[in-house]
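Project channel, design review

CF: Before we commit to the Aspergillus avenaceus constructs, I'd like one complete example in the thread so the newer folks can see what an input/output pair looks like. Taking Sodium:solute symporter family-domain-containing protein.
RD: sounds good, go ahead.
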Amino acid sequence: MTMIENSRRDGNGSVQPPLSQAVGYVVVVVIGLVIAFVMMIITKVLKKTTGEDNKKTEMFMTANRTVQTGLTASAVISSWLWTTAILGSSFVGYDYGVAGPFWFAAGCSPMIVFFALLGISCKRKIPEAHTSLEVVRIRYGRTAHAVFMTLCLVNNIFACANMLLGAAAVISAVTGMHVIAATFLLPVGVTVYTFVGGIKATFLTDYFHTAIILIIVCYFSIKAFTIDEVGSIGRLYDLVQAAAQRHPVSGNQDGAYLTMTSKRAMLFGILHICSNFGLVIMDTSYFIKAFSAAPSSVVPGYTIGGVAYFAIPWALGTIMSSVAVGLENTPLFPTYPRRMTSSEVTGGLVLPYAAITIAGKGGAAAILLITFMAVTSTLSAQVIAVSSILSFDIYREYFNKNASDRDIIRASHFGVIFFAAFSAGFSTMLHYVGIDLGWTLYMLGVVTCPGIFPMAFTILWRRQNTAAAILSPVLGMATGIGVWLGTAQHFYGSVSVAATGQILPCVYGTVASAFSPILYSVIITLLRPQNYDWNDFKKEKLALEKLDSDLTTVHTHGKNPRHDSNVEDGEHEGSLDPKELKRWGRIAAFWSIATFLGHWVIWPLPMYGSKYVFGKAFFSAWVVVAIIWLWLTMLVAIFYPIVDGGIQQTLQVYRGLRSDGHRNKVANPQTPPSPSIVGSTKGVKGTDEI
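CF: and here is what came back for Sodium:solute symporter family-domain-containing protein:
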């Protein structure tokens, strides 16, 4: 290891990249294009064998609303598997101790499960929708539509910037690749496969990327304890305790890393859960995936995915930040003999440095790969979300009411390319003004939260009126930004990048952005309450082919078959029975409350109040449970989609490739393409499984 250690540093103590630039370009460009090429082949095969035609908008945007529970759960895990989660959980663990990764995880799971409630409510009330913004427009009109469209686009822009900043910094650190080159090249492969495959490509690549990421993360969870300097969980405990003696953690009980009594970690938890509610509810990609799921798959898919996801930031952040803290003063660590600088920490380099410490160049390569996989997987969801807004909510609504399939797909393709380029440019701008992963992670909620409750009320509360829907998020954002900047000035004496990136101003600003719209909405609504009839949603037919043929025709793609064709899709229509959907709604509400109480009240608060500092046995149990949960998450993400319909569809594709007659029959334009494939392939549980 000595030669590797020496090659990491120059004479000034700065860390030299362990991998060459060529490796960076191969991973970012070549692997990205290979994945895109494979997805193009898969898309073509599925079209020939199952009738899944991505030239049809319903297939391109909603995968014909047939995705089953296993793939939905895997896609939900993937949707939250941001580079921010992988890198950020380790950096808050380094800063705050074990409470940091816990609150990072607890700030993610409850809103994923809560989204099951919103998703099933949309399935009940407006089953033909493509985006959440269509729901807003139908209920409140174009002014509200424009307001929420702006909020959603701001959400997507900052979310992408957050991902790209962290990923580009890490790729640059481990390969020496120029950070701007990484920023612009990362979206290339994403653009290609999303351009060709639409939401289906997003689901499939989500699955592939998530599998690779979780295998590597599980590898790190074991590898950390196999090096001589650590050797066991008990030894890691001793190393972290010794580090706390050298560098006590401000605001923690006894300055310890191993305690849940951490004021700054608690503040981060509050900030994180608020901003993540904004990221989920104001991100149209979550609604698209809910609309894409089969009705009976929305609630179990989001609930299983949300609970399973908890282990990833918790286990990875706890183990890798403990390794970084414990071994930072040894020659193994890349920065030795100095500590990591604050810019290295907030730039997301805790995880790469810990990986290099325990696995050398192999660790650096693994981090490079999972960073690439995470950023491209989540970017694809963001890109398809923005392209859906540009095509359905802007082009179709305001420029071409009679848009055909071809027109919509063309607009979607333009949206994919435009947003990929724009997000790279915006991230570059932020980089050059001195903004990094830490700053965007903390301030994200200020701009993503104002629409949370007005959007939720749109779907769940019939009383909210149009004025409340329009004004409350605008006033909420103004309040949040005002509080954020005002508290930065108050606490730190300036409104600068450094001051506005501190945790206190961000917490105050985020909470104000998230909760002030409740007050505004309720007050404005009480002046003249609306009594909205949910059935009005169903009066507007949103399936694209209604523009080309009469809705009373038998074209399955002209009407939403899940909404109207009980006979043809009899095997699956039981899941659309109103009583059944209402039952799923109650189940979603129960799990939403249970997940929040479990992750936010019953588990952490007694530990916070007791001021307990972990003993060796407790820390060992903490880490063991985290690792077991992490491995179970890997099994859910990789094998559940295969068991839940994947095998059947693989057989269907195999039969389709072998049988020319079957292939021609499905490909015949006189035969209605999928979505009716679910009904016509008896025993096949869905056409969107791996």
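RD: helpful, thanks. Residues 350-399 form the longest helix (50 residues).
CF: DSSP finds 31 helices and no strands in the chain.
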